[in-house]
């Protein structure tokens, strides 16, 4: 036999396998476990066919495909990772034509056979690390925000004025004060000198006696309730300990991400993009050559505009499509916010969109889209960001 196509439908605990000939005939179908022993049996079954050329196909289903992919490529096999959307489309076509529901593994093998697939690029280890650690950082950040929200709700009961006393009610200075004086009564009775010293040390000299006086007067006049105070105090203390732990872990991630990104990457030359955002963007993009244009990258991030069509009527909505990677979209959104502040060109572009009557979020989305185009250009050419070249492209009329 000249050619053999091996379609594998990935599952968490087991995989379905179809061996399909060049003529589209199913030679064998079987189930394999997600174990090394099963990989050996698969390898043996494929070898027994005696094909001169073998091509394996897997769907990029969650993370479950990666172990099998590594095992097969480690043996020298040619393996293609396919987007599940493509196999779903062909499966629906088979159902319409044949009125039967084919096995998913056969559909994957047939995609390989007829060549109707776009290969999903498997990231190298550095890109994979950037992506996974950046995504973990997002999850930690979301959890940290949730902890602060919970603590905020408790303080609204026992010390409702607390959140208005500080620019950051859960920053180092505020938390140091609350740890030492957990109730309004304790804070009101605090020694002014000791409170001042605590605030000065925690804020590294930025705050002092004036802040201490304001905090103490507010505590003395607090309208907080004392009902259930002990439970509330314990809740806040435990929540603050969780905050401190998560912040330490986020710092560990930041240090690792900064060490992973290439120090000469041009993305770091864009105003407002530091190592953390750069790591998130590079981890989600991977190989920039995957994208033939900035518009392709923009669509991958889900920052392209929706198109609404009905009959002969078509119009482009101002809302973004939100397809693609939500993590990349989030990183670009944060980068756009920073670029609007630090870069005159992007700031002018944002203000021009606002002058057109765009909502602030719409204007910021437009900045994110433009930033996406700029990032594609500098990463593709491997050149630093140059406002003199980038800014002329920021025409207000373009999308």
Automatic annotation (TrEMBL):
Domain annotation Transposase IS110-like N-terminal: ranges: 6-160
Top-level lineage group: Bacteria
InterPro entries: Transp_IS110-like_N, Transpos_IS110, Transposase_20
UniProt feature coiled coil, ranges: none
A GO MF term: DNA binding
Signal peptide: none
Residue ranges annotated for the Transposase IS116/IS110/IS902 C-terminal domain, each copy included: 267-351
UniProt keyword annotations, A-Z: Plasmid
GO terms of biological process kind: DNA transposition
Name recorded for this polypeptide: Transposase IS116/IS110/IS902 family protein
Organism: Sulfobacillus acidophilus (strain ATCC 700253 / DSM 10332 / NAL)
Organism lineage: Bacteria, Bacillati, Bacillota, Clostridia, Eubacteriales
């Amino acid at each position: 036999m000249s050619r053999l196509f091996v379609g594998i439908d990935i599952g968490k605990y087991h995989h379905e396998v179809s061996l399909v000939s060049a003529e589209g005939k199913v030679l064998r179908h079987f189930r394999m476990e997600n174990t090394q022993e099963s990989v050996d049996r698969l390898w043996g079954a494929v070898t027994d066919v005696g094909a001169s050329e073998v091509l394996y196909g897997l769907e990029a289903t969650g993370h479950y495909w990666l172990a099998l992919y590594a095992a097969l490529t480690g043996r020298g096999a040619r393996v293609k990772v396919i987007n599940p959307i493509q196999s779903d489309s062909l499966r629906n076509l088979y159902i319409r034509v044949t009125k039967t529901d084919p096995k998913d593994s056969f559909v994957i093998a047939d995609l390989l056979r007829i060549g109707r697939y776009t290969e999903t690029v498997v990231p190298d280890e550095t890109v994979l690390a950037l992506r996974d650690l950046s995504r973990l950082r997002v999850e930690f950040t979301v959890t940290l925000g949730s902890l602060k929200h919970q603590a905020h709700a408790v303080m609204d009961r026992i010390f409702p004025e607390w959140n208005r006393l500080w620019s950051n009610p859960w920053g180092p200075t505020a938390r140091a004060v609350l740890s030492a004086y957990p109730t309004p009564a304790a804070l009101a009775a605090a020694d002014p000198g000791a409170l001042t010293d605590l605030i000065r040390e925690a804020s590294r000299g930025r705050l002092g006696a004036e802040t201490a006086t304001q905090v103490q007067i507010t505590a003395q006049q607090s309208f907080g309730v004392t009902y259930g105070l002990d439970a509330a105090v314990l809740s806040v203390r435990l929540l603050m300990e969780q905050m401190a732990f998560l912040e330490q872990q986020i710092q560990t991630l930041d240090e690792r991400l900064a060490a992973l990104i290439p120090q000469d990457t041009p993305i770091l030359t864009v105003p407002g993009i530091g190592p953390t955002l750069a790591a998130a963007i590079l981890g989600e993009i991977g190989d920039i050559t995957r994208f033939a244009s900035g518009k392709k990258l923009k669509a991958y991030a889900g920052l392209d505009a929706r198109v609404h069509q009905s009959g002969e009527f078509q119009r482009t909505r101002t809302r973004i499509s939100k397809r693609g990677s939500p993590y990349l979209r989030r990183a670009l959104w944060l980068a756009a916010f920073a670029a609007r502040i630090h870069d005159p060109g992007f700031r002018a572009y944002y203000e021009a969109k606002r002058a057109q009557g765009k909502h602030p979020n719409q204007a910021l989305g437009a900045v994110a889209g433009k930033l996406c185009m700029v990032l594609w250009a500098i990463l593709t050419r491997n050149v630093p960001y140059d406002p003199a070249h980038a800014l002329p492209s920021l025409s207000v009329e373009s999308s």
